[in-house]
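Retry 2 of 3 after timeout on previous attempt. Resubmitting C-alpha cells to design endpoint.
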C-alpha cells in the first residue's frame, strides 16, 4: 500500500467488532441486573405498605388485638400478599407488641417486617 491509501484492514475491522460486542454484552448484563434490582425494590416497598397499612388498622382499633399468631391474605397493586401477625404481651399489661411479616403469596422469603406497639388509652 502506498502512503495515500487509507482505511482499515479486514482484521482490524473484525477486532474492532469483537471489542464492541464484548462491551455491548457487558452493558446488556448490567441493564438486566438493574431491572432485577428495581423489581426487588418495588416488591420490598409494596410489602412495606401492606405491613404499615395493617399496623395502622390495628393501632386505630379500640379493642385490644387478640394475642397469638394469625395469617391473612391481602391484595395490593394487583399482587397477593401473605401477612403474618404476632401479638404478644409486654412487661406493661396495657401495651402489646405487634410483629408483622409480609411475603408474596406462595413464597417463603419475607419481603418486609414491621414491629409496632398497641396501648390502651
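Retry 2 succeeded. Sequence:
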Amino acid at each position: 500500500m502506498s502512503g495515500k491509501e487509507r482505511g482499515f484492514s479486514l482484521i482490524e475491522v473484525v477486532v474492532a467488532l469483537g471489542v464492541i460486542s464484548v462491551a455491548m454484552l457487558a452493558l446488556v448484563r448490567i441493564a438486566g441486573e438493574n431491572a432485577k434490582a428495581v423489581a426487588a425494590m418495588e416488591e420490598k416497598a409494596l410489602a412495606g405498605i401492606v405491613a404499615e397499612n395493617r399496623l395502622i388498622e390495628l393501632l386505630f382499633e379500640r379493642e385490644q388485638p387478640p394475642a397469638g399468631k394469625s395469617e391473612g391474605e391481602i391484595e395490593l397493586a394487583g399482587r397477593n400478599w401473605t401477612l403474618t401477625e404476632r401479638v404478644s404481651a409486654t412487661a406493661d399489661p396495657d401495651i402489646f407488641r405487634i410483629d408483622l411479616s409480609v411475603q408474596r403469596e406462595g413464597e417463603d422469603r419475607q419481603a418486609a417486617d414491621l414491629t409496632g406497639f398497641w396501648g390502651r388509652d
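Attempt log closed. The chain is about 40% helix and 30% strand.
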